[in-house]
Amino acid sequence: MDATRLLDSASPEQREAVHRVAEHAAQLGLRAYVAGGAVRDAFLGRPVTDVDFVVAGDAIAFARGLAGAHGGEVVAHERFRTATWTIDAHRHDLASTRTERYPRPAALPEVTTGVPIEADLPRRDFSLNAMALRIDAPELVDPLGGAADIRTRRVRALHPKSFIDDPTRILRAARYVVRFGFDIDPETLDWLAEGVRHLPLVSGERLKYDIERMFSERAEPALALLAEWGVFHALGVPVPDGDLLRRRFERMRAELARNPIPTDGLGLSPEDLINVAGWGALIYNQGGFAISRWIDRIPFPIAIRDALVDSGPLSTLSPNTLRGASVSEMSALMRGFSGAGLLLGFL
Predict the structure, then answer these.
(1) Residue 121 belongs to some domain of the structure
(2) Dihedrals φ, ψ of 30, to 5°?
(3) What separation, in Å, do the N-terminal and C-terminal C-alpha atoms of the chain show?
(4) By C-alpha distance, which of 109, 206, 108, 105 is closest to 164?
(5) Are residues 113 and 247 in the same domain?
(6) Which domain CATH number covers 51?
(7) I want to staple 337 with a disulfide (CB 3.0 to 4.6 A). Which of 134, 167, 229, 341 is the partner?
């Protein structure tokens, strides 16, 4: 595969960014690559949604040079030597080639930059994300067999400590298995089992990010995999069984498609709406203990937290009670609940 195939799957803005990065790299005498999900998705024939660049040099200085030549703004992330270049409302992430060392399980890594791309790729989560395409030459860098694993439809981690170093990779594994219809490599599954016990060390913000990414895809089979792998048990949070989860998400999607929800009146963004519905499907009617455990674990925005708290007493109201109530009685029953909480009761 060369850059032409990747560019065919990219948006006009992404294609322009690739050309600008290639031109700037040539001027500086540096090698620049597209790496990770964009290369994977081009292999799969899927639309390329994000193009992440890797530079064999200082990515922050490189991004500032791009902004100087073409405009836009740069936000530097000094700890990991990465940068985000935003131009014409489009974000482009750039990273320096680097290695990573994890001082302890689930910790943020210590970074060493200035390495060749072949030394950078093994730090990644799975072989399907460990490919890079040099953008100024038709060169695919695939030292870890990512293309072969895509052809055999396999999710494979890169080393035995992968899930101990970063337990959130367990959540990503479930998402990739479901999104692509792949199988998980048996050895990878053994390594994953070793990492599950380290999940309580992961911050609530990181857990929230990966779980909410599932809500915008096919959440229920991914969540069922996490339950099967012991993820929720390790985190100490109860969840419904697989059949109930499936029914809830199917109903949620059907209701949201049938009844557009005025998010402004609920104090929710469209993204928040998907997330509050997803969390509700996962937590609703699991009892006060489950709600409190999730709230202790995850730093929910206030509107979502209040909706989940309201879902406890709302779930105790029987359909017969509501069906036989007068308007005034219904108003009294509903008084004090948040709009997002009532939405969960409706869904």
Answers:
(1) yes
(2) -110, 155
(3) 45
(4) 105
(5) no
(6) 3.30.460.10
(7) 341
pLDDT tier at 327 (50, 70, 90 boundaries)? Answer: very low
Query: Quick check: 126 pLDDT over 60?
Result: yes
* Residue 57 included in any domain: yes
Q: Which amino acid is at 342?
A: L
Q: Which of 95, 118, 151 is the last residue of a domain?
A: 151
Question: What are the pLDDT digits (tens) for 59-97?
Answer: 999 999 999 999 999 999 988 899 999 998 889 999 999
Residues 6+ apart with CB under 8 A from 125: 157, 158, 162, 166, 169, 172
Average pLDDT, the chain: 85
**Residue ranges making up the domain that contains 245:** 238-346
Boundary residue ending a domain (107, 135, 151): 151
Tens of pLDDT along 28-68? 999 999 998 999 998 898 888 888 999 999 999 999 999 99
Quote the number of domains for the chain.
Answer: 2
Q: What is the Cα 192 distance to its own chain's centre?
A: 18
Nearest 10 degrees: Cα torsion 11, 13, 14, 20: 150
Consecutive H or E run containing 42: helix 37-44
Q: Rounded CA gap, 263 and 271, in Å?
A: 10
Asked if residue 200 belongs to a domain, the reply is: no
